[in-house]
Protein: Peroxisomal biosis factor 26
Organism: Sphenodon punctatus
Amino acid sequence: MRNDLAAPPAGINGAGGCLRSSEPVSLSPVPTEAASLLEEAVDLLVVHMDFAAALDRCEKGCESLTSDPENEDCDNSAETKCSLCIVGIQALAEMNRWREVLSWLLRYYQIPEHLPPKILELCILLYSKVKEPHVMVEVGRDWLTNLANQSLPMYGSLVDLHLSHVLLPLGKFGEAEELVQGCKTFGKEQQLEALRTVSEKSRQWVQQQEEGQSKPEEQQTTAREKLFSSVSHKVLTLLTVLRRVLGSVAGHVCSIPYKKTLLAAFMLYLVVVRLDPAAPTSLPFLYRLIQLFHQAQAAVFSPRYRPPVQG
């Protein structure tokens, strides 16, 4: 058995380490039942790693203290109750039931303002590690604005913890400034340093928001550029193929003799324009055309044709 709970482990999945309170939890002489249940809970948590059984012992110990009002008002009983709750928080965290921590604590403390400073500290660290600091916004506000809590020795350190782990990560800079300005435990230099930190975090937050808005526009521009590049490549490929086809057709046409091409075009004109060459009005025209064609053929293609020699 262990006689103290200086730093109970808290292996939360994805939390990245153990949760530790800034002050050790010591066991003072207390009623026998609660003390024995606390020792059993610590042994089950640390040695046997039976988290469900450790939580059960913590609940029984808290209920035994709550059922006796005289013991509950005793300082030793309050310290034992706090220790039992810290072990219970660790057990819930080990079982990945950290979402139940606050509701479980309020079964024994009724309202957030009554939570001991060490338990509030552990809750802030817990929900910060699991990336859900918003759970502690109202709880921390209620506790820190309570006049009775502002006289406690840990009040200043809890203000720092609430600022750095809850308000600033959530972008609640107005509330953070009000908390710093209303903290009477801060000296002038400490208050100015805290306000500078809030201002710097606010500037970084605005910059991150602007960068986050510009990234989608940059991604859209890049997508348009990629699409335009792809379309341009396809168009260029199509034009290249078309140029090759036209070049091939032009080469084929140019390979046909010019005179034969002209003659074929002329005959095609006769067939197309003169839709009915057999009509009587077309016969004189065709007859004269045939004569001219034979004369041109005899004059151009006859091997006996020789141009006159000039003397």
